[in-house]
Specification:
Layout lengths: L13 H13 L2 H18 L1 H15 L5 H22 L13 H9 L19
Helix pairs in contact: 1-2, 2-4, 3-4
Length: about 130
């Protein structure tokens, strides 16, 4: 079996994932955010492969042996990013502080039917760009 994360099968149930999306969109962000704690706890307890990978990464970054709290925080940061994508992909940007720079200059170039080179940085989720 490949160790590349892109080739790992999904561990969660589709039904539970759909339920979390429904809770996220209908009940609200605070309740859905609270559900990430038991989800991350489950993965901390029952996903040895993900835990080992996280520990290896954190050991290199922190330059010390990571604690279980470090691994939990790592899992939670990952889960939070995925959770945010539910809002971004559903067009609910009001939960985020999003800034766009240089849009008038881009529109001016496009109005002239010319091309340009865009440079950007990834300081969040690419779903914001959609």
């Amino acid at each position: 079996m490949s160790t590349d994360w892109r080739h790992q099968p999904e561990r969660g149930s589709r039904g539970l994932m759909r339920l979390l999306v429904l809770i996220t969109l209908w009940v609200g962000r605070p309740v859905a955010r609270g559900l990430l704690y038991p989800i991350c706890s489950y993965f901390l307890l029952f996903s040895g492969g993900a835990q080992r990978t996280s520990r290896d990464y954190l050991r290199r970054i922190l330059q010390r042996p990571p604690s279980w709290k470090d691994v939990f925080r790592h899992f939670h940061a990952f889960a939070s990013t995925i959770h945010d994508r539910v809002y971004l992909l559903s067009g609910r940007h009001r939960y985020f502080d999003i800034h766009t720079e240089g849009a008038p200059a881009l529109h001016a170039v496009l109005a002239q039917n010319r091309g340009c080179i865009l440079l950007g940085s990834h300081l969040g989720s690419f779903e914001v760009l959609r």
